[in-house]
Design brief:
- This protein is of the alpha/beta class and 122 residues long.
- It has one domain: Dinitrogenase iron-molybdenum cofactor biosynthesis domain (Nucleotidyltransferase, domain 5).
- Helices cover 25% and strands 25% of the residues.
- The chain has 3 helices and 5 strands.
- Strands 3-2-1-4-5 form a 5-stranded mixed β-sheet, sandwiched between helices.
- β4, α2 and β5 form a beta-alpha-beta unit.
- The two termini are 24 Å apart.
Length: 122
């Protein structure tokens, strides 16, 4: 399972606004363990592509671009997603999970792995 997490320019803290995030950390999780990670640049964070209410260049929707950037992932885990971003991610078949507080990407993925391992309530 691959999980994408939008990060701030430091590449450490989870971004408070996915569409403006300069990059994503993609974690690969297998058997309850993080087995790899990679950073991906988000070219759609450029203000000319991602300015709410601005005209979109020739069909270049930044939310769809972000969905393509992480299309090989199973889910996106973040602290701030706009409705357009959530819709584009879900339309691309990704699950979207929201964090309830700011944290580092490592803290987020560690908590998410524990969440996945927790028994389902009956």
């Amino acid at each position: 399972m691959k999980i994408a997490i939008p990060t701030e320019s430091d590449g450490i803290q989870v971004s408070s606004h996915m569409g403006s995030s300069p990059n994503f950390l993609v974690f690969e999780v297998q058997a309850g363990q993080v087995v790899g990670s990679e950073a991906r640049a988000n070219s759609f964070a450029d203000p000319k592509f991602h300015a709410h209410g601005s005209p979109r260049e020739a069909g270049m929707d930044p939310h769809q671009g972000i969905a393509q950037l992480v299309s090989d992932c199973d889910a996106v885990l973040g602290y701030g997603h706009a409705c357009g971003a959530v819709g584009a991610l879900e339309a691309a078949g990704l699950k979207v999970y929201m964090l309830n507080a700011p944290c580092s990407a490592q803290q987020a993925i560690d908590a998410f792995v524990k969440y996945l391992a927790a028994p389902s309530p009956s």
